[in-house]
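Try it yourself: sequence plus adenosine-5'-triphosphate, in.
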Amino acid sequence: AEGDHLLSVEDIDAYYAQSHILRNLSMHVEEGEVCALLGRNGAGKTTTLRSIAGAHPPEVRDGVVRYKNDDITDYSTEDVSSLGISLVPEERRVFPNLSVGENLHLSDVARNWSNVVGRTVSMDHPGMSTEEVYEVFPRLEERESQKAGTLSGGEQQMLAIARALKQDTDLLMLDEPYEGLAPQIIDTVEDAIARIAETGTTILLVEQNAVAAMNIADRAYVVDQGEIVFTGTSEELRTDEETREQYLGV
Ligand code: ATP
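Structure, out:
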């Protein structure tokens, strides 16, 4: 039944002003899985994540986003994040003039402040400690006192993901974590994502790099021009040459 999914996006239509971007888009994410949303440049991947996260724009004018059966379509980004849904955007927001350690510490400050102002922090997933984050990303511990702005692209990506993990995260949404990374660094980030998945965190991975995403995803959706054109396991996508050639160019 629809109600059994951790997250379900049901027939949403999303717009930037008059531009109709997502058309009747439906997808779901099961608890504990790694789910990939793939597609070319401009296909509507980021728009889908922003629609789930309650970001404006875009505006969701039709359809429903459900999380654990609750209708969260009209929730603000703050309310969505207080449910344990974290979005790591493409731009890898870190504070460039602060050290790695200070960037991580700021997440604790933000969390404590949320408690002060009365936001609920899930006790099931209180967020990782800095020590736990360093176990996932040993590279960050080595660079604890380095300014975040001087980290490589891959290290900044790790730090952006690490900051999300310090909040209570049940569902981690990653927007193109491999973008601009050298193959070797992609492997490192990939390993880290796999390790995060092993801790029970559900992951929705948005990627243009379909080959890398299929390495760690259980299931995949392909979006094209705002519509879902493929749903299946990574294995099914791997053997579906027509879909790969037509929509992913691989
Ligand atoms: P990319 O890999 O390039 O990030 P994407 O699949 O994430 O691609 P989206 O960012 O979701 O694609 O964009 C989908 C469509 O919406 C594109 O045609 C884009 O030009 C348009 N779009 C995105 N943001 C806006 C905006 N703020 N205002 C108007 N149109 C937008």
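One thing you can check immediately is this: Residues 16, 19, 21, 39, 41-47, 57, 208 surround adenosine-5'-triphosphate (CB under 6 Å).
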